[in-house]
Structures are given as structure tokens and as C-alpha cells.
Amino acid sequence: MPYALGLDSSTQSCSAIVIDTDTQSVLAEASVNFGQSLPQYGAPAGFIPDGAGGEVHSDPRMWLDALELLLEDLKEQCDLSKITAISGAGQQHGSVYLNSKWLDTVQALSPSLSLSLQIGECFSRKTSPIWMDTATSAECREIAAAVGGDEVVCAKSGSIAIERFTGPQIRRFYKNDSEGYADTAHIHLVSSFLCSVLCGADAPIDTGDGAGMNLLNIQSWDWDTELLEATAPKLSNRLPKAAQGATTAGTLSNYFVEKYGFAVNTPVTVFTGDNPSSLVGMGASQPGKLVVSLGTSDTFFAAMPGVVADSQGCGHVFGNPAGGSMSLQCFINGSLAREAVKDKFGYDWDQFTAAFEKTPVANGGNVMVPFFRPEISPRVDLDAPLLKGSETFKSWHEADAAIRACVEGQFINMKLRTDWMQLKPEVIYLTGGASKNDAIAQVVADVFQAKVQRLAVSGSVALGAALRAASNSLGLDLHELESQFCKPETGSTIKPKAAADAYDDAAKIISELLR
Ligand code: XUL
């Protein structure tokens, strides 16, 4: 039976999709919101609020309880014994610390007790730092200094040492709680931890999620001895193997067979990070397609033809679950910046959209660096936008010009910061909250000089996991699956209208303002 299950353990919820690859249809979908369904973990938005000094942690038992609630729900919707392929994805960078009881416990889970109760005994660090944690600036500097600077860390691992990445987080744990570190026998990512739970054994870390640790070498796609040593002692003993995305981690453990009715020996493909999984779920795992996701922060990711790291130190290189590598770049000033300009003039979203009709492409020379808070692409510490243009524009007296300048500035900056990826986009898939807005989509098409499409898929992370599972365990071609399941919404294509050089002057101004 060609049924594949994809799981997505994200920051705020755990979701699943079951697809039938024969009929190319979705059979079931479910989602458990951590804050709403598991209030006992004190994490309304998926993490424990008010951490000291930039700490952002979650209780890993919450992820286990959510997985069980999710499977209960799916079991009501479809016959889980028909599933023949499973994979999943987790929020990137978050780490789970396990003691010497872990392997024996996960191998012999009793279906009459919950996962969280049994595995709860195995955590050597009770809570897990997640990607929102910014408490590790000192550790980033220490790691960089130990190996010869930021450029060396970036060339080796695909990113400079970054606060939310797992290596600096592990180092901080080792420094602040050396006993806890000594008691730690295994360290997993959220993705490989959940995959291990499903398999009842230590699962590998895939190169997609592994590259978000500042520990994996992006040339060899294996652990980098120098980075491991710079991070914490005897770290290599504590990490599982690194593996490419199309690797079978194991078969589903008896716990899930007995408790939820899955078939014996159902194969589980290694899990990956949410962004690499979304690359597949958006149908963009081959070079030539870019994904721009418009959310609280905006992200840009794409399959890359080769392995190059960002010499500006803002971007990231991860393994592409479909083979090769992918790039990812985050822009903190995403929808919050768009909203800030809208609110400054008391506009609603319709008025915001109408502003684009009332202003010309390139905005008559009115240009904005639209950073309302410190940005990471590039790293600048602004709390208000930089403006260049007419006096009325600079004094915030032209609402429509300010709105266009904000959106144009966002995507010109995005283009400037992503040129290192050497991509020649044929199509940009726009996703996330603001992606439905045609005026914004037109600016993206004009700045990047590529057509923009919106896809019908929602939940691209779980879908990507299901497609990867189907490809690896059922022997189906991944790109074929992508073209079957990730179709553009009819009438959603926006073509560039502006001349190719329309934004050249504005790009120069933004580069100068940021110098
Ligand atoms: C990527 C990142 C986030 C997390 C959570 O580097 O930190 O996108 O993966 O979604």
C-alpha cells in the first residue's frame, strides 16, 4: 500500500500528513498545538517564557506527549497499518540531552505507559534549548577563536558560529553544568531524537539538520573534529552518526505497532530540519527554484548547484535532503516591519495594498532600509529604518511612498544578501502569511526578475517529510512526487513587469546606507 506519513515537530505544534502516492491525494492531516493541548508544560507558544539572559527552552516531554496525541487523532482518521513509509522533521538547532539509560529505555518501551513517563527518566538536561535562544554569544566567540576565526567556522560548517546553533548551545551547557554534561551520554537534535523514539534506537542526524549545528563539515558532510574539540570535550562520543537524507534510520518500534496499530517493520527514513523538509514540500529541491517565506521573519531558501558558503557570514548552508546542498537566510525584519509601516499611518491591509498602485516602481528615488529592530542579514543594530529621498518621505509624511519603500527595501536587501548563492531563479515560490498579496508578489518578481508562484500546499514541512519517506522507502522518484503534490495555485503566477535595471540605483543606495 503506497501510504506515507510525514511528521513535523515545530516550535508551536506537532503536525502530520498521510498521503496516498497512487491516487496522489492527502488521506489525513492532524495537528496538536503545544500551548493549547498541553498547558501543563507552561509553554503557551511552545517554549518556556521569560528565560534569563536570552535563554529559550522547551520541555522535550511536551514533544513526546504531542506526538502521542497526534497519533491518537490520526488513528481515528485512517488505518495506520496501511502506512508503509514514515519520516519527519523538527524545528532546527534545538537539542536534547540524554543519559546512559536512554538506549535501553528506548529499545524496550512499554505500550502501557506513556513515552514521556518512560523517556522522562533519561534526560540529563531537563529542558532543551531551541532556535530562539540567544544566550551563547560568548561561546560563539570562543569556538571561532579556537579554530582561527569566523571565516574558518563558516568555511567548515557553512555558517559562522551563531547563538541559536547547537554547537554553541552544547558548549554553554558544558561550561555552566559540567556535571550535567558528564552525565550526558547522547545528544540529539529535535529531529533525530523523535526519529530515535520511533525506531527504538539511536537514529542518525541528517546533513540537512546537522549543518545547523556548527559541527558538521559541509565538504565531507561528516562531523568536523576541530569544531567538535572547540565545542566540548569528548563530543564525538555523544553524537550519533551523520547521514544523507535518503537513509533508512530503522523500522518502527513495537511500542507504536502495539499502541497505534502500525504494521510491523514499517521503515522510518531519517528525519531532517523543518526548513530542509519544507524545501522538498514546496517542490523546490532541484536548483532553479527559490522559496521565499513571508512570516514574522522572512526566510529565503533554495537548492544550490554547488557548495559555497556566504563570505558575508549571514547565510547558512545545509544539506539538501534530496542530495547536494541548500542555502537558507533569515531576515528578522519581515512582517513585523511591514506591519510597523502600516500601523504608523493607521492603514489597514487594503490601504497598504492600494499604496502600490499609487506609487511608481522604484518609488521615485525614495529608498528605505526597513529595519525596525536589529537585523541579522546583514548584522546591524538599528531600531529605526534608514531613509533616503525627498524631505516629506524622510519625515514620514508620505504613507504610500513609505509602504512601497519598505517592501522594495526588504526584497532589494534580500537580493543583495543572497547573491552569494549564485542562483539563477526560474521561479520563486512565495509562501507564508503575506504571500497571497499580489502587490508584494509583484515587487518580488520585479526585484528578482523571475516569475512568482503561490503553491496550493499548506504544511510544506510535513508534506516534505511524507514525500521523502515515500521516495526512500517505496522507491519513488522524489522530483516526480514533488511535481505531483506541489502544484501552483491556478492563476497565482505573477511575472516581472519592471525593467531589469529598475532597482539598480535603489540597490546602490541601500548598499551605501548599510556600509
Ligand atoms: C532556521 C531557524 C528556524 C527554525 C524554526 O535557521 O532557526 O527557521 O528552523 O523554524
Task: Note down, in words, how this protein is organized.
The model has no long low-confidence stretch (mean pLDDT 96). A hairpin with a 2-residue loop joins strand 21 (375-376) and strand 22 (379-380). The protein contains 21 helices and 25 strands. It has a 6-stranded mixed β-sheet with strand order 18-19-17-16-24-25, sandwiched between helices. The protein has 515 residues and is α+β, with helices and mostly antiparallel strands. Helix 5 (137-147) crosses helix 7.
Bound molecules: D-xylulose
Q: Give the N-to-C terminal Cα separation.
A: 58 Å
**Overall geometric form:** globular
Query: How large is the count of helical segments?
Result: 21
Q: State the low-pLDDT regions, or none.
A: none
Helical proportion, percent range: 25-40%
How would you concisely characterize the structure shown here?
The protein is of the alpha+beta class and 515 residues long. 37% of the residues lie in helices and 20% in strands. The mean pLDDT is 96.
Could you give the topology of this structure?
Blueprint: E1 3-9, E2 13-20, E3 25-33, H1 34-37, E4 57-58, H2 60-77, E5 83-90, E6 95-98, H3 102-107, H4 115-119, E7 128-129, H5 137-147, H6 150-157, H7 166-176, H8 178-182, E8 186-189, H9 190-199, E9 205-206, H10 207-210, E10 216-217, E11 222-223, H11 225-231, E12 242-243, E13 248-251, H12 254-260, E14 267-269, E15 272-273, H13 274-281, E16 289-294, E17 298-304, E18 316-319, E19 325-331, H14 335-344, H15 349-354, E20 367-369, E21 375-376, E22 379-380, E23 386-388, H16 391-394, H17 399-418, E24 427-431, H18 438-448, E25 451-454, H19 460-474, H20 478-485, H21 504-513
Parallel strand pairs: 1-5, 5-15, 9-12, 16-24, 24-25
Antiparallel strand pairs: 1-2, 2-3, 4-7, 6-8, 10-11, 13-14, 16-17, 17-19, 18-19, 20-23, 21-22
Helix pairs in contact: 5-6, 5-7, 5-11, 13-19, 14-17, 17-18, 17-21, 19-20
Bound molecules: D-xylulose.
